[in-house]
Amino acid sequence: MVDVVVIGLGPVGATLANLLGRAGISVVVLEREPAVYPLPRAVHFDAECMRVFDAIGVAPALAEHCRVSPGMKFVNADGKLLVDWQRPEGIGPQGWNSSYRFHQPDLERILRERLATHACVDVRLRSEVFALDEHADHVQVRYEDLSCGALREVRARYVIGADGARSLVRRMIGSEMVDLGLHERWLVFDALLKRDWNVLGEHSVQFCDPARPATYVRGVDNRRRWEIMLRPGEDAARFAQAENVWSMLKKWITPDDADLERAVVYTFHAVIAQRWRQGRLMLAGDAAHQTPPFLGQGMCAGIRDASNLAWKLVAILRHGASDALLDTYQQERYPHVSEFITLAVELGRIIQAVDQDAAARRDEMFANGPRRLQSLSPRLGASALLLQEAEGGAISRQPTLADGRRMDDAAGNDFLLLTRGGAFSAAQCEAARAAFPWPLRWIEDASESTRQWLDTLDADAVLIRPDRYVAGVARGGDALRNLTASVGAALGVAEAPVAA
């Protein structure tokens, strides 16, 4: 029996398997397809995702294939700017750029290469799962080996469905989808430039034209993407034909400028599964939630799922934490991803206004100037693992420490307690450590970036979880002891290990 079976080897499944594999968790990954899908799908991820990829050990290799994005503009049919979303192009407070463009096959290849370095991870391609039989202490996963037709099985303590929008695991859980109110068909086509072309610049552009809403995305290297909304009743197959695609693009680009790589119709959805867990079965990524692409947060949400879930599975499987810890997964992630989807739906209504009167009313809303959109950074939903009244649930900054290391490198896979130098006595430190039943890395740091962050938090110490979210902050020895004791009790570990 293995610790975890991950169903699906897309970016979310591969990220989760890597996070578990680095901690020595035995994993079997079951993937129906024989190889990485060669065409582009997701095209954006953010600084938080890059921190997860850095934890896996692939950030430097991945960065070579990425392009920093300056942001997105929303313009109406007359070219007037309605919404301006500028993304800082320098290194941000999380230690990475805020927005990256990428080519999904590159990411998946890099993640799979990293998986191959983990002896405890077994990837089985061409494996189609057809049954999940739950037992008291394990799940029996039955699947077909599509290479030969043989029926096989594997037993696991936990099963994670990272198996996409049509998730088998979600059907087995019996979880219905909560409809957040957006379902529209869009034609997505990717082009490969054959010569210099920069008509639309470096920003992504949302063309809020009621005659035909459209999106332009500046991809990596010579890749460019357009998305065009289809009207009800329009024939998707006909619109996807090359001559019709070029007809819709002719005001920007022609076949002399680029080759059409693919054209496909997607229905953009805004939905969240009601339940993400049943016993030993859990959902992640599109199996748990789907969002319109107007914020570029679809894959990002799944990567956050993987990061949240991975350390909790490690806590249970390696450190003796209570199985009830997994109940915090949906508690924390559901409200968080809901905020992103809600904003994406709101922006979708701006973009997809096809009635002329509605579009005129929309434009009037921005008569005094464009809306300046700021990147969302919501807190996680309330759980026993977070002190909500003291910055708990916010994504942490990543200061550069006085010894030159970045904070995440110093934290490794563990909780990190970052404190001002000399803020606590030896007795206070010992009491705080004794109250925490998990390997705890404690760093007293005198760097300017740490001081500024702690000043912002009005704290002497910040406790950071393995997924880089703030568990809580403390000022003074008693508060520090209460912080580690509260979070430690929520982990439900019977005995405290030796502190790191």
Structure, described:
- By secondary structure, this protein is of the alpha/beta class.
- Among the domains are: 2-66 and 102-178 and 270-350, FAD/NAD(P)-binding domain; 394-491, Glutaredoxin (3-Layer(aba) Sandwich).
- Helix content is 31%, strand content 29%.
- The chain is built from 14 helices and 24 strands.
- The protein has helices at 11-22, 47-56, 59-63, 104-115, 168-173, 236-239, 242-249, 298-319, 327-351, 356-365, 407-411, 426-434, 448-457, 477-491; strands spanning 2-7, 27-31, 44-46, 67-68, 71-76, 81-86, 99-101, 121-125, 127-134, 139-145, 150-161, 177-193, 204-208, 214-218, 223-229, 258-273, 277-278, 281-283, 289-290, 371-372, 415-420, 440-445, 461-464, 470-474.
- The strands form four sheets. A nine-stranded mixed beta sheet has the order 19-16-12-15-14-13-5-6-20, with helices on both faces. Strands 1, 2, 8, 9, 10, 11, 17 and 18 form an eight-stranded mixed beta sheet that branches.
- Strand 14 and strand 15 (223-229) form a beta hairpin.
- Helix 1 crosses helix 2 (47-56), helix 1 (11-22) packs parallel to helix 4 (104-115) and helix 12 packs parallel to helix 14.
- The longest helix has 25 residues, at 327-351.
- It starts with a strand and ends in a 9-residue tail after the last helix.
- Residues 496-500 have low confidence and may be disordered.
Concise structural overview:
This protein has 500 residues and is α/β, with parallel strands linked by helices.
